[in-house]
Design goal:
By secondary structure, the protein is mainly α. The chain has ten helices and three strands. Helix 4 packs antiparallel against helix 7 (about 145-155). This is GntR family transcriptional regulator.
């Protein structure tokens, strides 16, 4: 019985997390237990347990008398989170360069080519999707479970700001050559350059976040 409950809790946590990351629940939006029970066909215990799990990840805020809501992340906090990402994703890129296999290198090249075609065609939503696919593949190649878990939590807290970044004029044209440099370094098995390239890329994300602040973007 306990194992079954744990399984239901993990399933509910995963489903709600994915819904938040897809933007189906907006920052500040209330997460009503009764509605979640219906939507996910889950018990009240399972819903409450999942909300507790996502609260620990920083995706949800749970208030004693006001219930739960999707946590808002300020731009200042988003910058701090991205600074941590820069260090951890640099480590992941270096690890990927040490472990990459020929078939994985080919997949990296393919994604890079598709990203360039998306930019040339002005398909920026597709470019954003490919960006996520690239970073996920690099994490998979690295096989560093602890770093992967940390990055997953950090990226989850930034989902709203990542969406705004993807709409910034000129952002894909800026990030494309950065991604191509990362791909080349990993494919060539050069961990030092791979880490440097990833850190430079994430540093440019921080600069872009600060530009949103200057433009009066989401707080």
């Amino acid at each position: 019985m306990a194992a079954e409950r744990d399984g239901d809790r993990r399933h509910m946590s995963d489903a709600l997390r994915e819904a938040i990351l897809r933007g189906e629940f907006l920052p500040g939006e209330r997460l009503v237990e009764a509605q979640l029970m219906t939507r996910f066909t889950a018990s009240r215990f399972t819903v409450r347990s999942a909300l507790t799990d996502l609260s620990a990840e920083g995706l949800v805020e749970v208030h004693r008398n006001r219930g739960a809501q999707v946590r808002k992340v300020s731009l200042d906090e988003a910058v701090e989170i991205t600074e941590v990402r820069m260090v951890v994703e640099g480590l992941i890129a270096a690890r990927a360069a040490e472990r990459v296999q020929p078939d994985q290198a080919s997949e990296l090249d393919e994604i890079g080519l598709l990203m360039r075609r998306a930019v040339e065609a002005g398909e920026y939503r597709r470019y954003s999707d490919l960006n996520q696919r690239l970073h996920a593949l690099i994490r998979e190649i690295a096989g560093h479970r602890t770093a992967d878990r940390i990055v997953g939590t950090l990226r989850g807290q930034l989902v709203r700001h990542q969406f705004v970044l993807s709409l910034l004029p000129g952002r894909p044209q800026t990030s494309l050559p950065q991604h191509e440099r990362i791909i080349t370094a990993i494919r060539d098995g050069d961990p030092k350059i791979a880490e440097e390239a990833m850190r430079e890329h994430i540093a440019s994300v921080i600069d872009a976040l600060r530009s949103i602040d200057q433009l009066g973007g989401p707080a």
